């Protein structure tokens, strides 16, 4: 148990949240300002719009996955298994493998990774359980609290930029970046969309930056994972170069390199858990905090932050089924195409005006320029609830892997039939059928 933190903490004692987010709420721990309680909710958010749908049971399902995964990251044996995988993966290349295995990995093999996670609250007793699952799992996880600093928007000769100077002057904070690790490229990947807008010369440069040996294409598994970085505390995620990310982070080059290694190694740890039930991990995102020279895995790790898939046979094709938030993104793109187009238009308009995107969208909807946010079909939400419940059963060990795999495939086939009934199966196949 973390120093000075009580062994029990009743959810009823927490009072009102100090922060209400789109998918989770944060509570101060009474008399212990160095810690905070994260309450996951059933709400879901896509396209930076905020909470626009709910998946039943997703609050506790996500909290359990987070608790189990962070507990795994803290164990040296997790990193021992990652090392074995790296040594056995012959497509990595000797130089890249040796760099990845130098420094950061040996330290985690010796003592586990540092994370902000303390434990999960028992829903009945309030006991803070660090290892293993509480007798009564809850949607409350206790974490160490790190300062969050948001860069102010500045007007520079008529152009709007974000000022990251404060990160250069601080020693303890959440790094203002999201680290996206990709084992492969999906059809809905932001990195693929960017790639498709480039000319040939720009594509070659982009391939070199990402470490690709071949041209990028959809549903392509890579010889070795790549990573890219986005802003975290701007109104919407913005892709940044590694040079810009280093400056934004406020870290030394050495610590910044360590965060990149941690993101890649952590991705393999998550991949191992999902592969047990036949799911293929394509990408996921990490966040980190720094305290002096110490780095910590922080924030969430659940179906909102990774993209894992399986395949089901549909009309002679192998259809990719998403067991993560990407399924909701595809729903809005296909079933609610007018609304999705309006969201993208609002983002463009907001960027030009230097205004917050959500404010622009809300004003445009009120004025009738953009469609109002649609209500998701309950049948589709039920399918997503089935998927996350099955993944929860796996991490809790409530069913064997073969049973979970069969249940996930059944849910995937039902999702395909949902689109068929809506007359949209062809659009789904165009987006997610394997070539």
From TrEMBL:
| One of the protein's GO biological processes | 'de novo' IMP biosynthetic process
Keywords of this entry? ATP-binding, Ligase, Nucleotide-binding, Purine biosynthesis
Instruction: Work out whether the entry's keyword set contains Cell division.
Output: no
Keyword Ion transport appears in the UniProt entry: no
- Catalysis: reaction(s): 5-amino-1-(5-phospho-D-ribosyl)imidazole-4-carboxylate + L-aspartate + ATP = (2S)-2-[5-amino-1-(5-phospho-beta-D-ribosyl)imidazole-4-carboxamido]succinate + ADP + phosphate + 2 H(+)
The molecular function GO annotations come to: ATP binding; phosphoribosylaminoimidazolesuccinocarboxamide synthase activity
UniProt xrefs under Gene3D superfamilies? ATP-grasp fold, B domain
Q: What region holds the SAICAR synthetase/ADE2 N-terminal domain?
A: 172-339
Q: What is this protein called?
A: SAICAR synthetase/ADE2 N-terminal domain-containing protein
